[in-house]
Inverse folding.
């Protein structure tokens, strides 16, 4: 029953500790048996042996941020000489480059920059949809929160405005670990668990899909991770708005958490396998080759994962910690196929790319825009 | 109960009847056939293969995972096969700008690192130098043994032994005898590559043929010198080539029992002629293939006591996961690895013992520090 300053009116429902303990006991299973359990679940979700991936580009429109998360090496405080905000034209040029390699979306995320007002975001989205139309997967819950707070608006109003201006889906970033004791240690100024969940509920209610991430290996307990998964599962039971769960591990180099012991590959595989089992109502589970490397990402396809994530043309946030696994499409496809699966390029809603489609994206939200 | 399959320890049930029948053989402790091994390479059921390998490994090694504190010494990169072995980026011609050959004093100086480290083994391999005589190596081994009496010397692949026999105009058995007299404790398993004549003529034409490689190892075993054996995978070889290669190893092992460890080596294409030709520079073997090479090796080579994952080649992450796929040896704290790193390996050039022990424990296993001969050496060097 935690409450936080950012959302004093929000109360979290109680999580069943016995359930948490039972799922956490899965960590004690032999690794391969756990993997086989997760696989069984995954094959129920995707019986055709398809592993999907998306061609897209990250665009980090600003690195200015006031949230000071100790695990982040990307942000700069306002006034710092390395701080930047990209112009619409710079963003447009990046989109055209991305389209040149067949990108079907841009992932737009940035710092929590209080100098950017709602009209910056709506103006940018409008500019993109007018001059460089593409699916915009953008603005995670904590970014939506700061826009709402800057304007003292209800976050639903902000989501409506952004959706009208061209926002097509919302990334699941900023979830970290959805347990406030952990957040208080690693991301004290970031929105709390209840607010993160409230915003995703609002996103789903406004007709947009989102994903959910989990950043683990930040000193949280295994039970904390299970609690995180249960929070996502319970919201999903209400809204059905999460497309995928994307667990990844803290990359501590160059951050305020430098020196945190690295999560091992075995622990990563156990955790993805358990998330496949707990999140029985979320269809897709994504590997994190950026943090685990392509070899372990490929192995994770046998531990319940069915999506290889994004063929990122540009990635600034994790690579700011020195982690660099960006790979060409041919390599990504080879890794999926060699693991025994069929590689299929997808849209943000996980439907397969239709090369015949006469529109920039085949997801339901974008198709609706094509008819408007 | 919210969880299915809550009981554990039963292993992973294979998804196909074919795999099921192989699993039954493995469970019964029967040897698997060539066809079985090819099926294991070709199946998509990775976890079932891993589970069979895990069973075989547990019977042999329990929960123990071995590691050794070792130091690599590569005395020369001059190699008369520098144009022959197109998969290699290490060997150079004698007059190349980056050619080097260490004097014995330089070798001893480099080995001084062992004095301040818990080193238990020198792993010494290098190019086939056209001039260096056998005495260079026997003096080196004697000198190292004098200076570091508690450090084992594991030195010279079968290819280097055969080369020295040619230079000295004597038999390989003579070379082995002299090396043993000088203090050689064990021989590494390099140079085996893939025995298939077709593959060999593609990647290492005119390198020591399979029969010769096997003969040198047979001779070493006859003298009581334990050796390792390897398979270089991830280039032009097929699953059948891999299995045929392992068949030769299994046959020799039935005869001599002299192999300690099987080590599949993941090919690194960067800066190699073959990598350029195949357009594979920058590419790596997949983690799934890395695990399969180890796991199928464990199941097929039922008479070889240990399977080693070479983290330098496959990353520490894959090596840790491999401990659930039949592997019981995590190599060591390689000091100064050069050969794979010239072919683009982006792994660290050394790991400390604490890190190795941590990875093993996190995999649910019991770390055991060993010497070259797989004798446990206790907690001594963990201080």
């Amino acid at each position: 029953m935690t409450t936080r300053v950012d959302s004093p009116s929000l109360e979290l429902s109680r999580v069943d500790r016995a359930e948490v303990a039972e799922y956490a006991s899965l960590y004690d299973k032999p690794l391969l048996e756990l993997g086989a359990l997760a696989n069984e679940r995954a094959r129920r979700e995707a019986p055709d042996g398809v592993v999907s991936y998306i061609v897209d580009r990250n665009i980090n429109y600003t690195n200015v941020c006031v949230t000071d998360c100790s695990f982040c090496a990307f942000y700069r405080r306002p006034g710092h000489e390395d701080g930047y905000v990209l112009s619409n034209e710079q963003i447009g040029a990046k989109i055209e480059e991305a389209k040149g390699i067949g990108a079907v979306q841009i992932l737009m995320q940035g710092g929590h920059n209080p100098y950017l007002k709602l009209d910056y975001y709506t103006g940018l989205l409008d500019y993109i949809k007018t001059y460089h139309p593409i699916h915009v997967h953008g603005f995670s819950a904590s970014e939506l929160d700061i826009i709402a707070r800057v304007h003292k608006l209800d976050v639903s109003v902000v989501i409506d405005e952004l959706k009208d201006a061209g926002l097509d889906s919302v990334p699941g970033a900023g979830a970290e670990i959805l347990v406030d004791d952990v957040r208080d240690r690693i991301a004290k100024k970031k929105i709390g668990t209840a607010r993160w969940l409230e915003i995703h509920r609002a996103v789903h209610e406004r007709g947009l899909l989102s994903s959910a991430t989990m950043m683990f290996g930040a000193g949280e307990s295994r039970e904390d991770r299970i609690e995180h998964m249960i929070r996502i599962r319970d919201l999903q039971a209400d809204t059905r708005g999460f497309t995928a769960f994307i667990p990844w591990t803290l990359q501590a180099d160059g951050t305020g958490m430098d020196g945190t012991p690295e999560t091992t590959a075995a622990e990563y595989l156990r955790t993805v396998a358990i998330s496949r089992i707990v999140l029985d109502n979320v269809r897709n589970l994504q590997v994190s080759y950026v943090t685990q490397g392509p070899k372990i990402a490929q192995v994770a396809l046998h531990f319940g994962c069915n999506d290889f994530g994004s063929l990122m043309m540009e990635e600034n946030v994790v690579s700011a910690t020195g982690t660099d696994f960006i790979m060409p499409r041919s390599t990504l496809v080879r890794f999926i196929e060699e693991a025994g699966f069929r590689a299929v390029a997808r849209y943000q809603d996980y439907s397969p790319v239709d090369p015949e489609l006469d529109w920039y994206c085949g997801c339901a939200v974008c198709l609706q825009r094509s008819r408007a | 109960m919210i969880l299915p399959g809550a009981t554990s320890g039963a292993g992973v049930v294979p998804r196909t009847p074919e795999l099921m029948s192989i699993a039954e053989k493995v469970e019964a402790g029967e040897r698997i056939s060539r066809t079985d091994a090819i099926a294991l390479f070709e199946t998509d059921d990775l976890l079932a293969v891993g589970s069979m390998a895990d069973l075989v490994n547990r019977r042999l090694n329990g929960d123990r995972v071995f590691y050794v504190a070792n130091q690599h010494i590569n005395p020369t990169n001059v190699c008369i096969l520098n144009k022959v072995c197109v998969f290699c980026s290490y060997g150079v011609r004698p007059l190349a700008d980056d050619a080097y050959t260490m004097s014995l004093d330089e070798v001893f100086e480099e080995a001084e690192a062992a004095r301040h480290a818990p080193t238990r083994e020198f792993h010494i391999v290098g190019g086939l130098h056209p001039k260096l005589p056998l005495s260079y190596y026997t003096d080196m081994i004697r000198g190292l043994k004098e200076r570091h009496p508690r450090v084992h010397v594991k030195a010279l692949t079968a290819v280097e032994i055969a080369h020295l026999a040619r230079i000295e105009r004597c038999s390989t058995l003579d070379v082995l005898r002299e090396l043993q007299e000088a203090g050689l404790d064990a021989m590494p398993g390099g140079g085996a590559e893939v025995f298939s004549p077709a593959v060999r003529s593609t990647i290492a034409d005119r390198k020591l043929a399979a029969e010769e490689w096997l003969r040198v190892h047979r001779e070493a075993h006859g003298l009581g010198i334990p050796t390792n054996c390897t398979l270089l995978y991830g280039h032009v070889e097929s699953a059948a080539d891999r299995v045929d290669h392992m068949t030769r190893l299994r046959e020799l092992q039935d005869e001599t029992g002299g192999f300690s460890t099987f080590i599949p080596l993941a090919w690194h294409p960067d800066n190699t002629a073959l990598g350029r030709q195949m357009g594979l520079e920058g590419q790596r073997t997949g983690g799934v293939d890395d695990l399969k090479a180890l796991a199928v090796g464990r199941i097929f080579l039922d008479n070889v006591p240990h399977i080693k994952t070479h983290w330098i080649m496959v990353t520490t992450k894959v090596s840790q996961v491999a401990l659930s796929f039949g592997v019981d040896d995590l190599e060591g704290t390689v000091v100064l690895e050069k050969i794979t790193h010239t072919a683009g390996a982006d792994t660290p050039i050394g790991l400390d013992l604490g890190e190795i022990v941590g990875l093993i424990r996190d995999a649910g296993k019991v770390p055991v520090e060993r010497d070259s001969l797989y004798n446990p050496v206790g907690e001594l060097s963990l201080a």
Remarks:
- The beta strands of chain A are 50-59, 105-108, 135-138, 169-170, 209-216, 242-249, 284-285, 307-312, 342-345.
- Chain A touches chain B at residues 19, 22-23, 26, 28-33, 35-37, 39-40, 49, 261, 264-267, 269, 277, 292-299, 301-302, 331, 334-335, 338-341 (CB under 8 Å).
- The radius of gyration of chain A is 19 Å.
- The CA atoms of residues 64 and 79 of chain A lie 8 Å apart.
